[in-house]
Fold each of these.
Amino acid sequence: MNRDNLIDQVKDEYAKIASYESRQNFIQSTTDLTPEAYYEKLLSKAVDEINKGTFDNFNSGEEVVSAIANDKTWLSNWK
């Protein structure tokens, strides 16, 4: 799959997830990472990995997001 298309799909997937999480979490602690910030961080790492070719064998953004959700080792330097 074209990397730009894959990036667009991953962005859409994380936007949906972050939006859903925001609606579910009305109360946020000031020390906790908001859902938007967490998924923005994941998205940034995912885009870096897509650009490196890590996910070249994947067929959709949904597959990428699912793989990352199940195993953060797909992301270099994930903390």
Amino acid sequence: MNQEQIPASGLKRLHAKMLNHNILDISLSICGLVFITYFFLAWLFLPSWVHFEVVRTAPAYLLKPGESLFFNSLDYGFNLKITELGYYRPRFLCFLIEFLDTNLSFYFYQKFPQLGLKLPSYAASIMATVASFVWFYKTLFPKTGYGVALLGGASLLFYDVYQNTSFMVLRGGKFLTSAAGIFLVTIYLRYHRRDFSLSSLGTCLIISCVCFLLATMDEQITAVVFFTCFVALIVLFTEKKISQSFVIFVLAALNYCLYYFYWGRWLFSKFTPDGIQVNNHPHNFSDVFKVNFENIKGAAEMLLSNFIALGIPSLAFILVFFCSVANIYRKNNNITKNMLSCAAFLLFPIALTSVMVASHPAIYSYKSHQLWSLFYLLLPIHTLIISVIYSLYLANFKTNLFKAILAVCFIYICTNGVVKMDGLHHIACTNASKIFHSFNCGVNPFSLMK
């Protein structure tokens, strides 16, 4: 039937339906952008509290007369004396970000002293967290608009753990972990659909170098790299084919191992005055073998506490996840691979948090659980939500009902986050000096850092 054969009333209904869909997506997109802008401006203008460690490390990271931000960056990025007291913990990208943050924040403070101490990497994290989530969501659901994706990215900013961390001035690398983790997961999702061939080796090698560099920012990101290797192995054994994701993350993992044990150690020893400490760092990868039932229980308790703090959306997320798993089972299509992938994505944040608690017990026990809703759990909490959305993708529902449920949840989290922001900020500022022995909100200890 051509257009001339369709009744005029039918054309109007069809046009109205298309128009309404576009208007809805545009409205959701604007709503998401408004929430993102609100959070960014709140971060920029609300006073922050400075962690006492900044006072110790900032003077060492400040450029000396005659030095250059670009040409001397490696001297500071590979110097373990500044942050790690000479112990071997090769977080090169983290140290480089801290070096840039220190010098740029001092420069901006001279221009805009009324804003206080604001780390540029925190601003980058806000934008990167949203962008990485949008890329993740659009990778899974390319035919949908940007409305729900932008709302989902905005909602990540209004989780208690993210808001609380944004009030604190410490390490920009830690605040970027969520964005980096979601970015790596999206790399995996995009390239696991593509079969590997020798013609794609160059592309895989370049992307693996990016993944490796991100792994040097924080051990949590290193864990993501090895986690994606594990998931790629699941695909390899269930589908009997080598994907580009498998090659990318195997190369990144192998490169990291070589870096950690050999050439990275050599580089850090060259740039660290008096060389690297003989003793091992208090926190290292062997801590994974310390994990016991109590650590797993504590990790689950911490994650559940943050998850419940979302309120009603936490129940909706659970509903979406179990309905998705049920639909995967009902369809019986690639059930082994899909079920194992769902389980891996759900269990990863629990395993990651368990290792952190085993390595650093204070995360769980420190002063009335004050670290439960701070920067250590940024990536684990966000990964829980990622696992829900990934399960929805694998379920491949014909209806958009569950996407609509997600959209409502995202709006609720953003709105509730706006309402709670002043209260969370007040609590953070009140507890900063009492619990962390740090500076009160708005106090900028520049005189101690110069």
Amino acid sequence: MDLCPKCGQSICRRAYNMNLALGYVEEQFCLKCLSKLHSQDMDSMFDFVFGYIQSRDCFKKEWIKMKIRDECPLPGSCVIHKCFINKP
């Protein structure tokens, strides 16, 4: 698992996918830092990128590979309530 170059936190599979969807290929950031880069709060950033990911099969296919909350390395500092909505 990669670490965010700005804050050192782990970058989960879904945040990595968000980075790619936004064009960040060389460096990937955790959702918190990605949100700051785009002057948005984490919920707004998630909603924006999630909508795009769900409209593109290539990103959506990767998104669904992370199936359970326990796979999230940052459940207390991310938007897990949105990321795993209706999931155990």
Amino acid sequence: MKRIIGMGVGVAYLGLAFIALRKASAGWATGFEDLGFWWTVIAVILTIAAGGALVGTWLHTSESES
């Protein structure tokens, strides 16, 4: 159950990162470079958090070999 919840959190963070990246793209396209930049920063931070959640969940819920 912990693995499902952890992976779900990771996927949710990836979804938020995708939304932030879409907002960044819209900001760059309309000439608002500041909005494009900061939404890109937010997307990168969310992607790092998603990677941490996914990898951490995988490592901490795997069966130990000992």
